[in-house]
Specification:
10 helices, alpha/beta, 8-stranded mixed β-sheet, Aminopeptidase, single chain, 2 domains, 4-stranded antiparallel β-sheet
């Protein structure tokens, strides 16, 4: 594996700190985008910006050959940072609590190194995607013609993972992460005085019973080997302490690894709302918000990514075909259109559990920036092999 210069790694750490200081919410990453465009243009890449508002695609071509895309997410989260180091967020109420600052630094390091060494034949598209966290920037980029404008034979992404030791990688030949949907159930009853509940139809009681009933779907209606998570996360009802309200709302999220299970649970929920609520004298309405599909790797591309990670970090550092996460990732939209693969890059410092993603005290582990750059460089050089190197 070709060594990444220490000077480049140090520079990538500085870029990471810069991005951490100026976090921006999805589809508002204007300062971030401007800085990325500046750097990529200085290095001679062909840069197109403004895709899905703030997204960027930088093209590096070296002769004729296949083409691959590498994707890094750009957006931050609406969280007040609790850290006190020099590169803390300067934007109150917003911070890079998921490590996207590190993903961008890794991508920049790989882009710079590959633009100077050019040990490949073909085209690399460096994709900087906005709004991974909530607004589905991956879907927006696809809808705006990402793969029509930049034809790719494969696409890849990585994400730092605090639950995996630094210097290790996990990749699956199938599902990596779950689908993510949200729901809202509106329960309409009949309001009345709280001292005379017999005169009304209480939507709060009905909502409470429905919440418990929904939890039986996974334990009694779905096979135990079909992983899914159904969580009610909100309940809203009433304005006065002596009034039974007309209406109550509950909301939550569903995570699934298989599309068939996702559809099965939706159908069962619709049945519960139609029939379970009737004895309470109330009516329910389900609003379903389809989110991200499951993130599912192409087996062949996952194998290529695994081999690139082995070349970069060693065979013992790469974990293959492990349990998927019930978290979600909008890289899934890109994988639905173009074959590719996604991996987790270990970020845990030492043996103690790391602070989790989306925590106000989270900070990307700078020690893994070199690992990420090495993986991307290895993947490009193995996928876009130079003429005469096939049997070397």
């Amino acid at each position: 594996m070709r060594t990444i210069p220490n000077s480049l790694i140090d520079q990538a750490v500085a870029w990471r700190h810069c991005f951490h200081e100026i976090p921006e919410i999805g589809l508002q990453e204007y300062k971030t985008s401007d800085r990325l465009v500046q750097l990529l243009t200085e290095w001679g890449l062909d840069v197109e910006s403004g895709i899905a508002k703030t997204g960027i695609v930088a093209t590096l071509k070296n002769g004729e050959g296949p083409s691959i895309g590498l994707r890094a997410d750009m957006d931050a989260l609406p969280i007040n940072e609790q850290n006190e180091f020099a590169h803390c967020s300067v934007h109150p109420g917003c911070m890079h609590a998921c490590g996207h600052d590190g993903h961008m630094a890794i991508m920049l390091g790989a882009a710079y190194h590959l633009s100077r060494t050019r040990q490949f034949h073909g085209t690399v598209y460096f994709i900087f995607q906005p709004a991974e966290e909530n607004a589905g920037g991956g879907r927006l980029m696809v809808e705006e013609g990402l793969f029509d404008r930049f034809p790719m034979d494969a696409i890849y992404a990585l994400h730092n993972w605090p639950g995996l030791k630094a210097g290790e990688v996990m990749v699956n030949p199938g599902v990596m992460m779950a689908s993510h949907d949200s729901f809202r159930i509106t329960i309409k009853g009949k309001g009345c005085h709280a001292a005379m509940p017999e005169l009304g139809h209480d939507p709060i009681i009905a909502a409470s019973e429905l919440i418990g009933a929904l939890q039986t779907i996974l334990s009694r209606r779905v096979a135990s080997q079909n992983n899914a998570v159904l969580s009610v996360t909100q309940i809203h009802a009433g304005d006065a302490m002596n009034v039974i309200p007309e209406q109550a709302e509950i909301a939550g999220t569903l995570r699934c690894l298989q599309p068939a299970v996702r559809n099965q649970i939706i159908t069962i929920m619709e049945s519960f709302i139609s029939h379970f609520l009737k004895p309470f004298g109330v009516e329910g309405e389900l609003s379903w918000i389809y989110g991200y599909p499951a993130t599912e790797n192409d087996p062949d591309k996952a194998e290529l990514l695994k081999q690139a990670a082995i070349a970069a970090l060693g065979d013992s550092s790469v974990h293959w075909d492990q349990p998927a996460s019930m978290a979600a990732e909008d890289f899934s939209f890109m994988l639905q259109v173009c074959p590719g693969a996604y991996c987790w890059l270990g970020a845990q410092r030492g043996d103690e559990p790391s602070i989790s993603l989306h925590h106000p005290g989270y900070d990307f582990n700078d020690d893994i920036i070199a690992n990420g750059i090495q993986i991307w460089v290895s993947l490009v050089e193995q996928s876009l092999v130079m003429s005469g190197q096939e049997n070397s």
